[in-house]
Specification:
Isopropylmalate Dehydrogenase; binds ligand LD2JLWAY; eleven-stranded mixed β-sheet; binds 1,4-dihydronicotinamide adenine dinucleotide; 2 domains
Length: 319
């Protein structure tokens, strides 16, 4: 039987991505259902394997893009060369996925400061994907058994959030999330939408009536589709256990509104999925963890979950 090929991008060479890829390649369960291929630098993987006294990776599972001078990499350091290399691994993987050469992409973390230092005009993977695949609409969703959150806005400063909240964008994120969760759960999902302001604005007492003007009409439009969605809920109580137990996914207005509860509840297990693309892309939920890079102590759970979900979403593994 031919196993599906899954591109696993190595992420920032100075972060925990390379050692997590080394761990992943040694995982017998992963290799039982897919053929992972690390898009990265062979010499760097060998350098870290030797440093940690781990086995070197099987060349059959590495696509050597030779994007960086391995000896120049300092673990835990922001380096433009590392940002450029991480971008190179990722764009090659996107192009290969669009060409049907791999069934899905899974990304190890890149460092946004290094990416920026390299002059790449995107904050992160999600925005690169949307541009390179010409996706009309897409969004970031992080999912775990305990909690799932989709983000209406993501890598922007707080002061920009209110202007970015539109009726259309909120309806899009609700629809993309409902489609994804229907697929994952095998039934129509229940979604909850968070308000933007404290106490969901308390009828205009806080904020600029974003709830009444934008969020309430968007929820009503999504209900009419019909999607089982309600809100906006006051964000401070939306994540109480009594709401979580009946909620398949939350629609959150900004990055930390969703990612604080998600990481508090499920840091080891959560997977980042980009919805709305013509290709499947999943990722770890964590960053480059420069404080522990190349020490061999980084937890590989999120990467293993990300590969499992990518295989599932690409139809190569039963849901
Ligand atoms: N998918 C991606 O490419 C992501 C990239 N990032 C980027 O990563 C960089 C660093 O971000 P931070 O905010 O410092 O978050 P971080 O997730 O890298 O680190 C936060 C804390 O979690 C710990 N940690 C992270 N991953 C771990 C793992 N696998 N095992 C054990 N402990 C782990 C770190 O040691 C640190 O104490 C930033 O440039 C950020 O933008 C952040 C999130 C996702
Ligand atoms: N906090 C999530 C995150 O930063 C992931 O971003 P991306 O690189 O997957 O777009």
């Amino acid at each position: 039987m031919t196993l599906p090929r899954i591109a696993v991008t190595m992420g920032d060479p100075a972060g925990v991505g390379p050692e997590l890829c080394l761990r992943l390649l040694r995982d017998a369960h992963v290799r039982s259902y897919c053929h992972p291929i690390v898009y990265g630098d062979s010499a760097l993987l060998r350098r870290i394997a030797d440093h940690l006294h781990w086995p070197r990776p099987d060349p059959a599972h590495v696509l050597d893009l030779n994007a960086i001078n391995t000896q120049s990499v300092v673990p835990g350091r922001v380096m433009a060369e590392c940002g450029a290399a991480a971008y190179r691994y990722f764009t090659q993987a996107i192009d290969d996925a669009l060409a049907g050469k791999v069934a899905a992409i899974v990304t190890a973390p890149l460092n946004k400061k290094s990416l920026h230092a390299a002059g790449i005009p995107f904050p992160g993977h999600t925005e690169i994907l949307a541009a390179r695949t010409n996706a009309e609409r897409s969004c970031m969703m992080l999912t775990a058994d305990a909690i799932t959150c989709s983000l209406v806005t993501a890598h922007v400063g707080y002061r920009d959030v209110p202007q970015l909240l539109t009726f259309e964008r909120i309806v899009d994120v609700i629809e993309l999330t409902a489609d994804a969760m229907r697929r994952l759960r095998g039934r129509p999902p229940r979604l909850l939408v968070c308000g933007l302001n404290p106490h969901a604005g308390e009828r205009g007492l806080f904020g600029d009536r974003e709830e009444e003007r934008i969020i309430v009409p968007a929820v009503a439009a999504a209900c009419a589709k019909p999607i089982d969605v309600s809100g906006p809920l006051p964000p401070d109580t939306a994540f109480l256990p009594k709401y979580r137990k009946d909620c398949d996914a939350y629609i959150c207005m900004y990055h930390d509104q969703g990612l604080i509860p998600l990481k508090a509840l499920a840091f080891e297990d959560a997977v980042n999925v980009t919805l709305g693309l013509p290709i499947v892309r999943t990722s770890v939920d964590h960053g480059t963890a420069f404080d522990i890079a190349w020490q061999g102590v980084a937890d590989v759970s999120s990467l293993l979950k990300a590969v499992g979900l990518a295989a599932k979403l690409s139809g190569e593994r039963p849901v």
